[in-house]
Amino acid sequence: MHQSVVPPRPRSAFRIVVLATVLVSVAALAFTTLGAPSEATGRHRPFPLDLERASIPQIREALVARRITSEELVEAYLERIRTLNTNGPGLNAVRVVTRDAVAQAKQADQDRRKGRARGPMHGIPVLIKDNIDLKGLPTTAGALALENSYPAKDAFLVTRLKAAGAIILGKTNLTEFANFTTNGMPSGYSGLGGQVLNPYDVSQTPSGSSSGSGSAAAAALATVTIGTETSGSILSPSAANSLVGVKPTVGLVSRTGVVPIAASQDTAGPMTRTVYDAAALLTALTGIDPEDPITDTSSGVVGTDYTRALSSTALQGKRIGVASTPTGNQGVLFTEALDVLRAQGATVVPVTVNTGGLPPSILTYEFKRDLNAYLARLPRSAPMDTLDDVVRYNLVHVDEGTIKFGQTQLVASNDVDLTDPAAKAEYETNRDTGIAGARERIDSVLTAENLDAIVFVGSGSAGIGARAQYPSVAVPIGYDPANGRPVGMSFLGTAYTEAQLLALAYDYEQASLKWRPPSQVNPSLFRCADFGDRDTSCAP
């Protein structure tokens, strides 16, 4: 065994390495300017795409037509990261960029020229959450204790992205340990990464643990991003950042190489600005992983191209249950969204889904077991072996900001002993009855009313869907007229109905056309960003 707690390299040195990484990546852009928040610029000419609004089909068309290259696309995104993430508004959504992003782009361009494009994701820049393994960069989960924790290889989902030709642009910040460090920690905060901001309203939470992925996707710091969810951490930041978010069925996307909370509920999924982009990204993520046996349950849908399920008539003749009754401005927007569903031919049925009274959460039981299993996969040089090492490291380094808000949940899980027969029996009962109970509550409503899906305002499907291991798709439905804050709704279905849920969301999206970019909803945040036409009244 290697030493349990290895002192990390000095923080100042690490910052220099990260800064150098970013500077090398953007060195070619030293004399580049951006025309406007939605108009990134290449090295030699105005960039021909509005990146804030461009989705995969528009980008792909420009790549195929050779109006842009993937290299120019990566450079434009890196400049947006410099302008909006690191400087300017300082969204702090991106923690680090990959050293070889431009090299990946050049290879994608070369493959395309040789007729070797591998589908919609080929040459498309993706940001992944920093609890997902990417060889060559540490996987930190936002924790100082894991600042120098380098995996031996890519997560399985990353290998799938690379096989689809995607460019891994970098990693996003997150709520530390996916919001399982303590109670009361602000969403988007971590001891290593600091605080992520919501580009639609920096006074409001970016929400969920996938806050960096949410903020980065909203601000177009990459074409698409990846988040992870245990209970709400894709759906909630998607609603807060006006995104399409897909929380897949547990088993559709491999969990190998992802820092866990609880295997019973963990999954990664897309966070994007359009439903098509989410479908294209989900298509690239899926596959059966020999190291994650639960992916065997997805054998019936392996190879599905989710973009082919999308239809502007998907709602015609469908029956949609409505499980939310919001009030105020949120209620007005939700009512308008239901009107769109009806106008597209759906029958809307009020239903009640009992989301309370389930057995106690199993997260505290599973976190220690699953984190220790993840850490055991790392190279011998990794700084942490167990959750106990993390807890002790945090106490020793408290003056460095390891546990500004405490570590109550880490400690509670560390105290769990699943070798104790009574504790093990209690855990297994809560796990099994929780999954079965949540599924019965959803399935019984779907069956009794002959429904195709159930909609909730915001991320209301998150809790019950997480316990059931069922999929949800979140989609924007507008902005509160009182403050411009985004409002969304989520479609919930039974296991492995992602294709249908995406189709329903796509039909709604195309009919409603509600999405707006953050620079339009919250222009004051972007007014003094250094885009070339910067207001002369702005501070230097």
Automatic annotation (TrEMBL):
It comes from the Bacteria. Residues 72-502 form the Amidase domain. This is Amidase family protein. It comes from Plantactinospora solaniradicis.
